[in-house]
């Protein structure tokens, strides 16, 4: 049986960095962001549902999803954003679980990279959940630097998400990403050694 490790974090905590280190060790990664794009590709049931709900203005002339147009519709409207998430959730869940099953057949450790892991209830499918953690003030600083935005904008983005402190409380494993890249590499190496994946 494969071990399924869910990895999550919040904006600018460095989740991608951690997932990439696991990739470098050769473990299978199931990436929810990639799957989220796949479930709305042309001629998918997911895209059909989006068009039924938001109208054909969200389509490009080639039949693909016009992300910019859809983004404008949902960005300023929380209800519409929630409606879109609820609409795509079953397609996403089915595809994520299917990919985890397939990866389990070939890898002793499967990394499930899911940004909204707790919010969407994926923790029940995981053997353990690792949270990539940095304190909120550092999150704001890194986000300002990364996206070249003001402190106020960064704080707003951070506040719109499930709190990193709350995720930390619920985590089975915490990868603390406040220090250097070598520090986070060491934490992952130690965990892999301890769990006998290396």
What number is the mean pLDDT?
96
CATH uppermost class of the largest domain: Alpha Beta
- Coarse shape: globular
Counting structural domains, the number is 2
CATH architecture of the largest domain: 3-Layer(aba) Sandwich
Helicity, as a percent range = 40-55%
What is CATH's topology name of the largest domain?
Answer: Rossmann fold
Oligomer: single chain
Q: Using DSSP, what is the number of strands?
A: 5
Summarize the structure in words.
The chain has 198 residues and is α/β, with parallel strands linked by helices. The chain folds into 2 domains: 1-27 and 108-198, P-loop containing nucleotide triphosphate hydrolases (Rossmann fold, 3-Layer(aba) Sandwich); 34-106, Rossmann fold. 53% of the residues lie in helices and 13% in strands. The chain has helices at 15-24, 32-38, 45-54, 67-75, 78-104, 136-147, 151-159, 164-170, 181-194, and strands at 3-8, 28-31, 109-113, 128-133, 173-176. A 5-stranded parallel β-sheet has the order 2-3-1-4-5, with helices on both faces. Helix 3 (45-54) packs antiparallel against helix 5 and helix 6 crosses helix 7 (151-159). The chain is globular, with a radius of gyration of 18 Å. The protein starts with a strand and ends with a helix. The mean pLDDT is 96.
